[in-house]
Design a protein that fits this description.
It is a single chain. This protein is α/β, with parallel strands linked by helices. The chain has a single domain, classed as TIM Barrel (Alpha-Beta Barrel). The chain contains 11 helices and 8 strands. The longest helix has 19 residues. The radius of gyration is 18 Å and the shape is globular. Bound molecules: 2-phosphoglycolic acid (PGA). 2-phosphoglycolic acid binds next to strand 8.
Length: 265
């Protein structure tokens, strides 16, 4: 399992040029603090290029959706190639808001994830049950179906995919599943991934998303099979996102050549 968690932000349809100051502030914080995590902010397509140049590699920048084709007569859409060209390393696909408001099916999400792979862009594939599915006891079945349908065909070769488990009732609501619920679903996702991808399913990151904040991120990241988080609201302001990052351990500094050798005590 990957050692470093992925701490990913999702700005959704928020952000104008003025908000790029938040990217600068988060990047500066990461550069100084060196949290032991991969840090990514997914922004609207209009901001990717500027966000990536401001971040300067201190944090990664991603997109929030891509088309399944590399190019073509698809007015208003962006391909994964275009996102990469603008500076994105990663793209979110199949977010529940895309599934709900744009009618995206598992097959469409799988096609988008496959397009991202072909473009060399990592894909974060979102899944999660509705409140009604949870109440009916169908959470694991619903998530299992979404995983089976939303992964690209050659997932074992994909390398660069992650799953984000985002229960719909937890997104933007302030309600977070209890630890046992997260553990149960993440374990099930891991089993599904290993069924589909074999041993390499153990290396696919499984993120939790839905009302993650600085006051709950540590306990969520401590759970089995939680390899990172996807954060909406608390990623919009550097003050909130940095507070999340501040809860993480920091990277051990390699002694530089300029450091004097320590004398034995
Ligand atoms: P939230 O959003 O952190 O605001 O709940 C998460 C998401 O939708 O990815």
């Amino acid at each position: 399992m990957p050692v470093r968690p992925l701490i990913a932000g999702n700005w959704k349809m928020h952000g104008l040029a003025a908000q790029l100051a938040e990217i600068e502030a988060i990047s500066a914080f990461v550069q100084v603090r060196r949290p032991a995590a991969d840090v990514l902010i997914c922004v609207p397509a209009t901001l990717i290029s500027r966000a990536a140049s401001i971040a300067g590699g201190r944090i990664a920048v991603g997109g929030e959706d891509c088309h399944a084709q590399a190019s073509g007569a698809f007015t208003g859409d962006c391909s994964a190639d275009m996102l990469k060209d603008a500076g994105a390393t990663t793209v979110i696909v199949g977010h529940s808001e895309r599934r709900e408001y744009h009618g995206e099916t598992d097959a469409m999400v799988a096609a988008k994830a496959g397009a991202a792979r072909r473009s060399g862009v990592a894909a974060i594939i979102c899944i999660g049950e509705t409140q009604a599915q949870r109440e009916a006891g169908n959470t694991l079945a619903a998530c299992g179906r979404q995983i089976a349908g939303s992964l690209p065909a050659d997932v074992a070769q994909s390398g660069s995919i992650a799953i984000a488990y985002e229960p719909l009732w937890a997104i933007g609501s302030g309600h977070v599943p209890v630890p046992a619920q997260i553990i149960e679903v993440h374990r099930h996702i891991r089993e599904c991934l290993m069924d589909i991808a074999g041993a390499s399913g153990a290396d696919i990151r499984i993120l939790y998303g839905g009302s993650v904040r600085s006051d709950n991120v540590q306990s969520i990241l401590s759970l089995a099979n939680v390899d990172g988080v996807l954060i909406g609201g608390a990623s919009l302001l550097a003050a909130d996102f940095d507070a999340v990052l501040r809860t993480l351990p920091v990277m051990v500094q390699e002694p530089s050549r300029a450091d004097p050798p320590r004398s034995p005590r």
